[in-house]
């Protein structure tokens, strides 16, 4: 008796069903491979198109590079220049937003100056310190509208280069944000308040900051960035080219020199203050620390003090913080000296006293205060 073939419900044999299913699977597989190949090819085409557009944009940016530059700008130069332009637009936007909040009108206390009067201001301040110069840039364009005669000698570059560049382009890239945060608003102290009021109690609040400014002529390898202390003021400039006074920022710029070279900072004045979180992170740096440590405040703020100490002194610093936490709110106490690594890699010895500030609401330590004197 012959064995009958097994059939599926539709009457197909098992072999026929398997053969058809296998064919369908191979068909689906080839379809997926084809779609994957098409997708990969499409993605590659998209990448190629984006790359071509990027090259075109970079080439366009290079054509807008400052003409004072002698060497051909690289792609990185063009991208950095574009980034500076973005920062400049953001700064101007913030300034105008502040003006709109003040009904769009310039402050009544701001004196309007003529271009020739800026030269008088510059000469008065430059004569007091050979490391100082005055720069005035427009909030509307970001470009310098005046720079004192002493600036080229301080920066070791040609005056034509300074006059043809926005001031922000002279700054080290890592300091551009600091510069705009201190100058891109309408709450700057008025220059006439600083010069005309007799009582020091009537002075507008003045806050200085630090930036590295480029020195040397364009295209030369010896161009370096040097540290400068900058004090900004708000003025308005009246020029024949504009019917309305132009809002400007007047900058008093002073070169920062090491506190250990002539003219040296006296030994009893080599002091500065720092504040830290309970976790040893820098919160604020006294500006007196700049010529003593070589760091600008923005170089240290947000970093751990432990990373700047001699490896053998890290345990001492941790012991200080533990003692401060234990003696919360108590008077300052002295502790063993610590070795701090300055910007040039040398270690200096700091004699320090420590205290804390306790938040009256949370009754927790908000910050730790260190008062330091450099040991000679």
Automatic annotation (TrEMBL):
Residues 1-46 are annotated as: Disordered. Residues 1-11 have a biased composition (Polar residues). InterPro entries: PAS, PAS-like_dom_sf, PAS_fold_3, PER1-3_bHLH, Per1-3_PAS-A, Period_circadian_regulator. It is found in: Nucleus. Keywords: Nucleus. GO terms for cellular component: nucleus. SMART domains: PAS. It holds the Pfam family bHLH_PER. Residues 282-328 form the PAS domain. Residues 18-27 have a biased composition (Basic and acidic residues). CDD domains: PAS. PANTHER family: PERIOD CIRCADIAN PROTEIN, PERIOD CIRCADIAN PROTEIN HOMOLOG 3. This is Period circadian regulator 3. It comes from Sus scrofa. The lineage of its organism: Eukaryota, Metazoa, Chordata, Craniata, Vertebrata.
């Amino acid at each position: 008796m012959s064995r009958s073939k097994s059939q599926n419900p539709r009457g197909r044999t098992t072999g026929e069903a398997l053969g058809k299913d296998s064919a369908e699977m191979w068909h689906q597989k080839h379809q997926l491979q084809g779609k994957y190949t098409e997708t990969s090819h499409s993605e590659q085409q998209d990448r190629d198109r984006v790359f071509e557009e990027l090259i075109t944009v970079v080439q366009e940016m290079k054509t807008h590079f400052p003409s004072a530059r002698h060497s051909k700008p690289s792609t990185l130069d063009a991208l950095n220049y574009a980034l500076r332009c973005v920062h400049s637009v953001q700064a101007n936007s913030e300034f105008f937003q502040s003006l709109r909040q003040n009904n769009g009108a310039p402050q009544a206390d701001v004196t309007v100056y003529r271009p020739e009067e800026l030269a008088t201001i510059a000469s008065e301040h430059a004569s007091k310190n050979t490391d100082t110069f005055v720069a005035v840039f427009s909030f509307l364009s970001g470009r310098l509208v005046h720079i004192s005669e002493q600036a080229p000698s301080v920066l070791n570059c040609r005056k034509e280069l300074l006059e043809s560049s926005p001031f922000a382009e002279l700054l080290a890239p890592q300091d551009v944000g600091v510069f705009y945060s201190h100058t891109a608003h309408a709450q700057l102290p008025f220059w006439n308040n600083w010069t005309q009021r007799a009582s020091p109690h009537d002075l507008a609040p003045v806050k200085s900051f630090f930036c590295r400014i480029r020195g040397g002529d364009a295209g030369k390898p010896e161009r370096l960035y040097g540290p400068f202390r900058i004090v900004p003021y708000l003025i308005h400039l009246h020029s024949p080219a504009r019917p309305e006074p132009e809002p400007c920022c007047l900058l008093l710029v002073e070169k920062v020199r090491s506190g250990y070279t002539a003219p040296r900072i006296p030994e009893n004045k080599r002091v500065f203050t720092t504040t830290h979180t309970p976790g040893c992170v820098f919160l604020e740096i006294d500006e007196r620390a700049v010529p003593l440590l070589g760091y600008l405040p923005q170089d240290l703020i947000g970093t751990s003090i432990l990373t700047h100490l001699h490896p053998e002194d890290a345990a001492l610093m941790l012991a200080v913080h533990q003692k401060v936490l234990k003696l919360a709110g108590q008077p300052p106490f002295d502790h063993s000296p610590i070795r701090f690594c300055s910007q040039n890699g040398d270690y200096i010895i700091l004699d320090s006293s420590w205290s804390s500030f306790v938040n009256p609401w949370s009754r927790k330590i908000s910050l730790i205060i260190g008062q330091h004197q450099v040991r000679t």
